[in-house]
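Inverse folding, one chain.
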């Protein structure tokens, strides 16, 4: 597994490399194509014999939404300890082959897992819940990760993967079909209600509701300045680790972060107007950080979810284990504060966050 795209199928790779252009890291690219060719018989067999006969998830999923670096992973890690199906690492890496070949290769693949995520210090274990975006990047041309893999078309591929810019209805329906297919496999494999976390879906909650009528949604938010500072690190780390091309000179990550945040949250607000319990709950990250059990009880109560009492000891044990976890800390500079205030002021005001006073010099 030389690269996350090593779990893609040949059809997806053909489209992704056509969209992204020639790679600079030819050895990694060769490993990606070799993996797809080697897995082809297993991929076809799994689809024909098992997966295409699977029913849709029942009950519909619970989705954790929120811009990247807003606390979605922490919430997902804790809640996954309840009675939930979730995306494990093997399914992320081998979405086409998770039920057959993935089961056979699981011990080998688990030995390759990094100790922590690339972007922070959060441990990665064989049972760590994963977001499904890397899996879907292996199944479709429509993923924001393709902008990271092919940064010479960074902004175009980010917008295509997040907002479906320039996509036809046929392309969007093909993505939807593979999305349903993947979640059906997870539900079938684990046999419990689905809990899915993916910041990408914050840009399209209404679409999720159409695909899965009856789905429930948790939106977690955090101070936009903290998000902005952390996103700088997010992109720099992922580009260094995952890009198959040398990023172009002058790539303006700050502009992309602020533009995407603004557009994502505008779409989210427009599409979730009027949403309320028991189908929707909004949660500040600060509450989850300071009073995690109160936050979890609120989520379970507002969404009318079963199982809080049974899961409570598991939640408490995990929270005790991570109490000493060292979070990434990024000191904001005056330029960052001004950029965030100018671009993201409506959400800073709406959620009641504060920014340093730039009139007194560098914070």
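Residues assigned per position:
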């Amino acid at each position: 597994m030389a690269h996350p795209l090593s779990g893609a199928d040949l059809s997806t790779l053909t489209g992704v490399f056509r969209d992204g252009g020639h790679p600079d890291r030819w050895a990694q690219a060769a490993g990606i194509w070799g993996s797809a060719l080697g897995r082809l018989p297993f991929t076809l067999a799994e689809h024909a014999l098992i997966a295409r006969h699977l029913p849709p998830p029942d009950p519909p999923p619970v989705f954790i939404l929120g811009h990247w670096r807003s606390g979605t992973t922490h919430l997902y890690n804790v809640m996954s300890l309840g009675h939930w199906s979730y995306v494990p690492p093997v399914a992320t890496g081998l979405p086409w082959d998770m039920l057959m070949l993935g089961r056979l290769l699981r011990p080998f693949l688990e030995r390759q897992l990094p100790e922590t995520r690339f972007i922070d210090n959060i441990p990665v274990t064989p049972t760590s819940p994963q977001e499904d975006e890397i899996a879907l990047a292996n199944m479709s041309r429509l993923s924001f990760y393709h902008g990271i893999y092919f940064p010479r078309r960074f902004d175009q591929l980010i917008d295509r993967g997040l907002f479906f810019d320039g996509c036809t209805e046929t392309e969007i329906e093909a993505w939807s079909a593979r999305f349903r297919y993947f979640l059906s496999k997870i539900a079938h494999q684990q046999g419990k209600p689905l809990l899915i976390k993916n910041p990408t879906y914050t840009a399209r909650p209404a679409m999720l509701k159409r695909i899965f009528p009856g789905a429930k949604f948790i939106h977690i938010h955090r101070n936009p300045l903290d998000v902005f500072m952390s996103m700088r690190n997010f992109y720099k780390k992922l580009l260094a680790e995952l890009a198959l091309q040398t990023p172009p000179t002058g790539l303006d990550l700050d502009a992309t972060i602020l533009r995407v945040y603004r557009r994502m949250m505008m779409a989210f607000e427009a599409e979730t107007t009027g949403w309320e319990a028991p189908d929707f709950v909004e949660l500040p990250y600060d509450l989850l950080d300071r009073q995690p059990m109160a936050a979890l009880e609120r989520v379970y109560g507002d969404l009318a979810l079963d199982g809080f009492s049974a899961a409570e000891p598991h939640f408490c044990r995990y929270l005790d284990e991570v109490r000493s976890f060292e979070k990434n800390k990024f000191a904001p500079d005056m330029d960052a504060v001004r950029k965030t205030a100018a671009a993201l002021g409506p959400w800073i005001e709406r959620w009641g966050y504060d920014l340093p006073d730039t009139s007194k010099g560098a914070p």
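The two ends are 43 Å apart (CA to CA). Strands lie at 62-65, 195-197, 216-221, 280-284.
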